[in-house]
Structures are given as C-alpha cells and as structure tokens.
Automatic annotation (TrEMBL):
Binding site for substrate: 278
Highest classification ranks of the organism: Bacteria, Pseudomonadati, Pseudomonadota, Betaproteobacteria, Burkholderiales
UniProt record, GO biological process: adenine catabolic process; hypoxanthine salvage; nucleotide metabolic process
Hydrolase is among the record's keywords: yes
Naturally occurring in which organism (per UniProt): Ramlibacter humi
Residues of the active site: 199
Domain Adenosine deaminase: 11-326
Function: Catalyzes the hydrolytic deamination of adenine to hypoxanthine. Plays an important role in the purine salvage pathway and in nitrogen catabolism.
Protein name: Adenine deaminase
Top EC group: hydrolase
C-alpha cells in the first residue's frame, strides 16, 4: 500500500485539538450573523488572509477574537459536530477535545451553555459516527490561578462531562508551577492532567509540568529535544508528547516542515503522537498533518504504525478498551 493511503486509512486517536480552533471562517461568519456579533473582517477571504502568524501570541489574539461569535448552546454544538465529522473522515476513532471555558464565561456565556453544547455533539458522534469523544477543560495560563479555581468551581456541576484538565494559552512567562495548587486539587478530584509545555517555552517548563503539576501527558513538548536528560526521562517514564506539526510550522516554532523534530522524538523512543491543535487556523486536520509531515520529513511506514499505536497508548480510554485498538 502507498504510504499516503496508509496514513489516511489507519485508525488513529487525536489527543490535542482545541475545539475553538476548529471553527472554520465560514461557520464563524454564519454565527456572527445569526448572533448579531460584529467581526473586524469584511469577508471569509479577508479573515483567512489574517491567518499569517509570527508566533503563538499573534495567533492567540485572532483565535480569542474569533471565539467571540460563540453565544448559544447550538453554536458550541455546531462547532463540535463539524469537527467530529472531519475526525470521522480522517479515521479518528477516539478524540480528546480541549475547550477553553474562560474565553466564554468572561463574555457572559455560561459554563452550562458551553459544556452542554459540546457534550451533546460528543454523544451524537458516538451514536451516529462511531467516534468516541471526551472533553478536557483547559485553564488559560495568562490568567490567575484564582481565576482557574473559580472556573473549576463553575465546572463542578458538570464533573461527569469532562475527563480531565489542561493548561493552554500564552506559555512564556506563565510557567506550569503558577498553577500548582489548582492542579493538586484536580488530582484529588480524580481528573486526568495534561499541560502545554515546551511549545515555545524552555525544557524547564516540561520538567515542572511533570514534577510540580504531575501531568500524565505533555502537549507539544517539542523543545524537549534541547535537553538530553529530559529526553531520557520522557522515554523512561513513557510520558506522551502530543505533537502538532502544522501548528509548529504556522507559529514559526520550526522554520520549515522538513526541520521538524518528530522523527528525532520517535527515534529516541518517545511516545510522540500527531495532532491538529487548531485545524481551522493552521491549514489542516489530522490527515493533513500526517501527509504533509511525512512528505516533508521522509518518515516511513514503520513510523506511521508507531504513531498510530502511540496515539491509543497515550489516550485516556480504559485499559480494556485500549487492548481492542492494539
Ligand atoms: N490555545 C489554542 N491553541 C494553542 C496552542 N497551540 N498553544 C497554546 N494555547 C493554545
Ligand atoms: Zn494546543
């Protein structure tokens, strides 16, 4: 079988997707219209032209502005449903979806509206698409730990509707240890723990995500290759990295896709996975990430198989379920 066909058709899990980053410009304009929200762009094309980023912050500014069109439960449902259909088309059997409630509650949208809309789409995906979807609540690291605690409090009535918590937004200057107390509390609550670290930030942030926050996975983590001791730790403890190649390219973490270190991470024995991050902004869903990265870097069918196996190993599905995907 040709490698592109193998990449497209192989069953896979997605573990790093921000649902707000799956909102395509067309749907964003539709929601802006029906909710009577003004967008600072004249057209879909005008908006797409703004997707020319120099670093993480230049993207986040536009991403948070775009999320301003999401008002009703239907909006959250429609956004997630559109993503889940793309996931099905890319042979994603299992997906763990990040959402950023603070982006919405700060605008007066209730936690209930956000969680119910997303949850309903996940339920429908299981029933109608055969895609298994769970939610992970992310705290915004540019905000305070106190704000994160309030967000956790607001989410507690919906505790059974998300499987874990994460940490995202502006990385440099907001190290994981800023959220030590709230992650300790989430750990007591039995929530799964993940955090973005080593996307733009230093290996030191990956160390503290592991040792202070006690996360089970690192989101991105590509800067880890700068620290041999950290590479050893990640390999020995089988700490997964949810790598997002097209995101790294668009946010200038690597100058060219052929410079990406995914192959280096895999060859060092790390549990690296491929994910889309914010597909509507970075030019591709799962299979686009696989196909373009393999094309650019010359990874092999053995790497493809390893990535598929890693994606299920790194997921939070139960041990019994997991055996079915081996
Ligand atoms: N929020 C959405 N995408 C993100 C990314 N790649 N890094 C940090 N925060 C994000
Ligand atoms: Zn991310």
């Amino acid at each position: 079988e040709r490698l592109p066909e193998l990449l497209r058709r192989m069953p896979k899990a997605e573990l790093h997707i921000h649902i707000e980053g799956s909102l395509e410009p067309e749907l964003m304009f539709e929601m802006a219209q029906r909710n009577r929200v003004a967008l600072p762009y004249a057209s879909v094309d005008d908006l797409r032209r703004a997707y020319d980023f120099s670093n993480l912050q230049s993207f986040l500014d536009i991403y948070y502005a775009g999320a301003g069109v999401l008002i009703t439960e239907r909006d959250f449902f429609d956004m997630a449903w559109a993503y889940l259909q793309k996931a099905r088309a890319d042979h994603v059997l299992h997906t763990e979806i990040f959402f950023d409630p603070q982006t919405h509650t700060a605008r007066g949208v209730s936690m209930e509206t956000v969680v119910n809309g997303l949850h309903r789409a996940c339920e429908q995906a299981r029933a109608q698409l055969g895609v298994n979807a769970s939610l992970i609540l992310c705290f915004l690291r540019h905000l305070s730990e106190e704000d994160a605690f309030q967000t956790l409090e607001q989410a507690m009535p919906f505790r059974d509707r998300f499987i874990g918590v994460g940490l995202d937004s502006s990385e440099v200057g907001h190290p994981p240890e800023k959220f030590a107390k709230v992650f300790a509390r989430c750990r007591e609550l039995g929530l799964h723990l993940v955090a973005h670290a080593g996307e733009e930030g230093p290996p030191a942030y990956v160390w503290t995500a592991l040792d202070v926050l006690k996360v089970e996975r690192i989101d991105h983590g590509v800067q880890s290759s700068k620290d041999p001791a950290l590479m050893k730790r990640l390999a020995q403890d089988r700490i997964p990295l949810t790598v997002c190649p097209l995101s790294n390219l668009k946010l200038c973490v690597f100058p060219r896709l052929q410079d990406h270190n995914l192959g280096q991470l895999l060859d060092a024995g790390l549990v690296a996975t491929v994910n889309s991050d914010d597909p509507a902004y970075f030019g591709g869903y799962m299979n686009d990430n696989f196909l373009r990265t393999f094309e650019a870097t010359g990874l092999t069918a053995a790497h493809a198989h390893r990535l598929a196996v890693n994606s299920f190993e790194a997921s939070f599905i139960g041990a019994a379920e997991k055996r079915k995907y081996r």
